[in-house]
Design a protein that fits this description.
16 helices; six-stranded parallel beta sheet; Rossmann fold; alpha/beta; globular
């Protein structure tokens, strides 16, 4: 069977899961594969979905509580973690079956842990479906890994080992980290700065922290501007942070504030250093060819991802305080011997190759 339609199971916790699904869909497009991305959260029902979103956002501000939950219940496969997984499947499966009946996909790709278990149970109803889990976190927890999944795609040997921790016989392939095409086609540094009215010879940093704008970015932006540096500050969907950054930009003309924006490739290209939290932004930054100062603001899987980024190099970690951020940015700006190296080739060939190696055929003209 040749894949004609792919269904991606994503989740609206930030924007990272959707960007992964979008990158995969773009890689499949040249093979004539139609793709649809659906949000798992509404499939849980209004109550559980709203509660899950609220709890996750709240736990981000209580790092010790979230760390305990992540390491004991999710990564530790604790009784509460297993209960949550079973409850998610029970709520999701009828709606997922309806979605599959409407769209008739040949391939289901889970890029969100909540969808991974439901997709496996879906195969009981639709045995001809191919099911793939694509995880970009550096270490899997129990909700990601279920026997019956045809293929697990990860972006490091560390992540592959973590999958086999739960399922030793799993078929796991390591692929290049996915990045959307816009980042490979980003403008030059000079063109990006000209579009933003940033002087070509001025130190300039991009400041962001995921779609939710986690952390004291307004205080950090003010401290960076006080050093005489240009700051491109992105608040994402955090409207309160957006208002505070706009106030900083009124006091400091070298601070340019943005809300949720599709200009991130150009903002990265214009910058000398990118300040961000761990996540998809890190992969995008590496494509553009910039060094990162990583804010330690996302507990649980965020800390695991942060440590892996440090291992990859061209990154520093800082406390979410103005002094720690400024000190690490200054260290990178003072290092005149480092040269950026952009990635010019697009992503997706190994993704397609691993699908086909697992027996998931794509049309090749």
């Amino acid at each position: 069977m040749t894949v004609k339609r792919a269904l991606f199971l994503s989740g609206k916790f930030g924007a990272g899961h959707d960007t992964l699904a979008e990158a995969c869909a773009a890689a499949l497009l040249p093979y004539g594969v139609e793709s649809r991305i659906v949000d798992c959260m509404p499939m849980l029902g209004g109550g559980p979905s709203a509660v899950g979103n609220f709890v996750f956002r709240s736990l981000l501000s209580m790092t010790s509580v979230y760390d305990g939950f992540h390491f004991s219940q999710l990564r530790g496969n604790g009784s509460l973690g297993r209960f949550m997984d079973r409850a998610a499947v029970k709520a999701m499966l009828p709606k997922l079956i309806e979605e599959v009946d409407r769209y008739a996909p040949d391939l289901v790709v889970s890029v969100f842990a909540t969808g991974a278990s439901a997709a496996v149970h879906l195969k009981d109803e639709r045995p001809d479906l191919a099911t793939v889990v694509f995880m970009t976190d550096s270490f899997a927890h129990g909700m990601w890994v279920h026997e019956g999944t045809d293929l697990f795609l990860v972006t490091s040997e560390l992540a592959a080992a973590s999958v086999r921790r739960y399922h030793p016989e799993a078929r796991v392939s390591v692929v290049e980290a996915p990045v959307r095409p816009d980042f490979y086609a980003a403008p030059s540094r000079a063109d990006a700065r000209a579009s933003l009215d940033v002087p070509n010879d001025a130190p300039c940093v991009l400041l962001m922290s995921g779609a939710w704008g986690v952390g004291p970015l307004d205080d950090v932006a003010r401290a960076l501007a006080t050093e005489g540096w240009w700051v491109l500050a992105v608040s994402g969907t955090n409207e309160s942070l957006g208002a505070r950054l706009a106030a900083v930009s009124r006091d400091y003309p070298t601070v340019i504030s943005f809300g949720y924006t599709d200009q991130v490739p150009a903002l990265m290209a214009a910058s000398d250093v990118v300040i961000t939290s761990s996540g998809d932004t890190c992969r995008e930054t590496r494509v553009i060819g910039r060094r990162m100062v990583l804010l330690d603001v996302v507990p649980g899987h965020g800390r695991e991802n942060l440590m892996h980024e440090l291992e990859l190099g061209d990154a520093a970690v800082c406390l979410p305080t103005p002094a720690s951020v400024v000190g690490n940015v200054r260290r990178f700006l003072d290092d005149r011997g480092w040269e950026p190296a952009r990635t010019t080739t697009g992503w997706g060939h190994d993704f397609v190759d691993e699908l086909e190696a697992a027996g998931i055929a794509l049309r090749r003209d």
